[in-house]
Structure formats: structure tokens, C-alpha cells
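User: Predict structure, ligand zinc ion.
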Amino acid sequence: MEKRYCLECGEGFLGRIDKRFCCDACRNSYHNAISRQSKAYSYKINSILHRNHSILSESLQSGKLQLDRKEMEEKHFAARFHTASKRKPLRRTVYTCYDISYRIEGRKGVRILTDSK
Ligand SMILES: [Zn+2]
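Assistant: Predicted complex:
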């Protein structure tokens, strides 16, 4: 048995070479913290995706297919967050946010695509 140091509380303990925690409470606490961080990160990304989808959806429903830069900034549309992307030779990449596709057109902003091309 070698002296080891708990990853959670830093206390020294004796145990097998692969043992990383002094007790179950420390092991649980360590893994719960990792899980919390991971969930917080997912929540943040999902919120951005949902906001993007709402903006695209509202624009689409009002028959407006172009979102200019100013509008994107005002509404906090984050074009780099998407659920899929498809790069085509000699054409702009098509991004998809759930069921709505769009192209990023530089200064012109974002163009919502109504067909699947
Ligand atoms: Zn501990």
C-alpha cells in the first residue's frame, strides 16, 4: 500500500495504486462537480441554438429570408452555432439549425434557405 492523495479533498490515504479518492463521499462529490460543469456547458450551448432557431423561425414565418448584420447583432444571432453544416464545392457552406438551413453571406448577413440545396 502506497500513500495516495485524494483528488477531491487532497487528504492523504493508503490504498491501491489505482484508488483516487479517500472515501465514497469524495468520489461522488468529484464526479457530481464534473457532471454539473458538463450540464452547465450543454445548457449554455442549447440556449444559443434555441435562440438562433427562434430568430430564424420568426424571420421565416414573416416571409423574410435575409437577416442583415445589424439585425443579427441586435437579436444576438450567433451564426457559428449550428446543428449541422454541409460544405459544397464552389458554393458557400450551408448551415442548419435543427430544421432550418442558412448561408452566411459576409457583410450581407445570413440568408435563410427554403429548399434543401
Ligand atoms: Zn477525500
